[in-house]
Amino acid sequence: MIMKGKIHLHQVTSESLRLGALLSLVGGFLDTYTFVGRDGVFANAQTGNIVLLAIKIIQGNWVQALVHIPPLIAFSLGVFVAEGIKRKSTHLLTPDWTRAILLLEIAIFFIVGLIPQGVPNTVVVVIVSFVASVQMTSFRKLIDVPYTSTVSTGNLRSASEALYIAITTKDTNAAIRAMRYGVILTAFLVGALLGGFLTLAIGDIAIWGAVVALIFSFILFTEKEKWKLPLRH
Fold first, then answer.
1. Do 14 and 85 contact (CB within 8 A), yes or no?
2. Count of C-beta atoms within a 10 Å radius of residue 170
3. I want to staple 43 with a disulfide (CB 3.0 to 4.6 A). Which of 34, 97, 176, 177 is the partner?
4. In 10 A of CB 181, how many CB atoms?
5. What is the mean pLDDT of residues 153-163?
C-alpha cells in the first residue's frame, strides 16, 4: 500500500541537508586546492597527511616529511577554537555561533586569496587546515545522523550501512538516510573537481570559489522553507 506522507526534513539550520551539501563541496574544494596548488598537502584529510608523513620518513626525505606536520597541528588548534566559539553566548557580528563560523571562514579564505605568491605554501596550508578543522568540528550533524563535511570515509561507511539496511529490510528511513549521504558524497566530489580545475586554471585565487559557496551557505540561514518527500509504507 502506498501512503502519501510528508517528511519535514528540517528548516534551514546548521543540520540542513542543503547546508551540509554546500559545506561538503567546500571540503572537497579545499583538499584539491592545497594538494594541487600547495605542495601536495591535504587541507582536510589528515589521515592522508599522516600516511604521507610516514612515507617521506621511510624514504629519508626529512624536509618533505616536515611539510605534513604543520597542517596536523593547525587542525588540532582548529578544534580548540571551534569549541571555544560554540561556548560563547554572544558574538560581535551575530548571536548565532554557526553563522559566526561561516563568517569566519568567508573572511579568512578571502584573505588567503590575497596572499602574495612569495609566501611559503606551508603558511597557506596551515591557515586552510585550521579553518577546515573549525568547520568540521562545528557542523557534525546531518538532520538526525552524524556526518563530516570535510572528509568522506565516514560518510561513505554510513551511506553503505544505510543502503544495506534499506535493501535487506525494506526500511524507508534507511533509504532516505542513504540518499542524504549520497548527496553529501556527491557534493564532496563536485567540490574536489571544481577545486582542482579552478586551481589549475587561475591559481591561488581559486580559493575564492570556496568563498562563494560559503556565502550561499550563510544566505541559507535566512530561508524558512522545508523540504518534503513522499513516504511509502
1. no
2. 10
3. 34
4. 25
5. 93
Q: What whole-number percentage of the chain has pLDDT above 70?
A: 85
Find, among 10, 28, 14, the residue nearest to 132 by Cα: 28
Residue 13's pLDDT band (boundaries 50, 70, 90)?
Answer: low
- In the block, which residue shows the cell 525494506? 170
Q: Are 208 and 113 a contacting pair, CB within 8 Å?
A: yes
**Calpha distance 132→48 (Å, rounded):** 15
- Spatial separation of the C-alpha atoms in residues 123 and 108, rounded to whole Å: 13
What pLDDT score was predicted for residue 109? Answer: 94
Cβ contacts of 80 within 8 Å, gap of 6 or more: none
Instruction: Give the tens place of pLDDT for each residue, 24-80.
Output: 999 999 989 988 888 777 777 788 888 888 998 998 888 888 888 888 899 888 888
**DSSP per-residue string spanning the chain:** -----------SSTT-HHHHHHHHHHHHHHHHHHHHHTTT--SS-HHHHHHHHHHHHHHT-HHHHHTTHHHHHHHHHHHHHHHHHHT-S--SS-S-HHHHHHHHHHHHHHHHTTS-TTS-HHHHHHHHHHHHHHHHHH--EETTEE--SS--HHHHHHHHHHHHHHHHH--HHHHHHHHHHHHHHHHHHHHHHHHHHHHHHHGGGGGHHHHHHHHHHHHHTT-----------
